[in-house]
Design a protein that fits this description.
Layout lengths: L11 H14 L5 H13 L5 H13 L9 E2 L6 E2 L8 H7 L3 E6 L1 E10 H8 L7 H4 L5 E3 L4 H11 L3 E5 L5 E6 H9 L15 E5 L2 E5 L4 H8 L11 H9 L8 E4 L2 E8 L4 E8 L2
Parallel strand pairs: 2-3, 5-6
Antiparallel strand pairs: 1-7, 3-4, 6-7, 8-9, 9-12, 10-11, 11-12
Helix pairs in contact: 2-3, 3-8
Length: 280
């Protein structure tokens, strides 16, 4: 006869003894314990704020799935497989991406990836060549794949983009290696990001603006002659979070009076950039 109890039926006394043992040894038993130890190290000046943020980001990535950070299908900048590359010049000039999903019929069916360097290489000799003739195979991953596993695969295969598919095999969105790394180190800016200068507010056209989330709400009110400032938040990003009542993801939007705010850059810890459209 086996007198041992299964783990799920341990007595309260046994669980209490285990907890006391854990406290005495000082060894972390789960992720929460490990995070607590790391944060105590920061409080004791063994780590600075940036190092703590990176460590926390790396640990959180192991708990996150591709679906948590992917760019949704409706927001993908795509090219049709039968398009002549000459017709794509205005699009690639506007968006400045290095890779574009290639679709057949609609966005749910991604059949390849067009690399900008391939487009320009063939444009020199034959501008009439079609996308499907020069596209590369798409790297496909399920929505449920863990981010740390995806990062390892992207690095191993030398891929920078993966197409995310749902349970039916249809494209649900895309994810890039930059998206994963930003969960660890925070925002990565490049020459195509919508931050042309050091100002908080950048005007794209008559009715559209790109705004840094760190813009002081008083400065926003002064610029747009609005009255959004309260004691509950200090920045435009804080205003967005306060209104939505959760940390928004890229693509989430909010309409207030004649203003439509859309989050265009965010990670799991903060909002970075917001697009503002003034409605008629």
């Amino acid at each position: 006869m086996n007198d041992e109890h299964p783990p799920s039926r341990r007595s309260p006394q046994k669980r209490w003894v285990d907890r006391i043992s854990q406290l005495l040894t000082g060894e972390p038993q789960d992720l929460d314990d490990l995070l607590e130890i790391i944060r105590e190290a920061k409080e004791n000046y063994l780590l600075d704020t940036d190092a703590l943020s990176i460590i926390e980001g790396a640990l959180q990535v192991s708990q996150m799935r591709v679906r948590d950070i992917m760019i949704p299908r409706v927001q993908m900048v795509v090219v049709p497989k039968d398009a002549e590359i000459e017709a794509l010049f205005p699009l690639v000039t506007e968006f400045g991406h290095s890779r574009y999903p290639v679709i057949e019929d609609d966005r749910s069916k991604v059949v390849g990836i067009l690399l900008l360097k391939d487009l320009f290489a063939h444009a020199v000799t034959n501008k009439k060549i079609k996308v499907h003739e020069i596209m590369r195979p798409a790297n496909v991953v399920p929505e449920s794949k863990r981010l740390n596993v995806l990062l390892k695969e992207l690095r191993t295969k030398g891929n920078h983009m993966a197409i995310v598919v749902d349970e039916y095999g249809q494209a649900a969105g895309l994810v890039t290696i930059e998206d994963v790394l930003e969960q660890i180190v925070g925002e990565i800016e490049d020459e195509h990001d919508d931050q042309e200068d050091e100002s908080y507010i950048y005007q794209r056209n008559e009715n559209e603006y790109v705004i840094k989330a760190l813009t002081p709400i008083e400065e926003f009110d002064e610029y747009f002659a609005t009255h959004l400032a309260t004691d509950e938040y200090d920045t435009v990003g804080g205003f967005i979070v306060n209104q939505l009542e959760h940390m928004p993801k890229k693509g989430e939007s909010l309409t207030v009076d004649n203003m439509r705010f859309e989050v265009i850059r965010a990670d799991n810890r903060r909002v970075h950039l917001i697009k503002l459209k003034l409605l008629d």
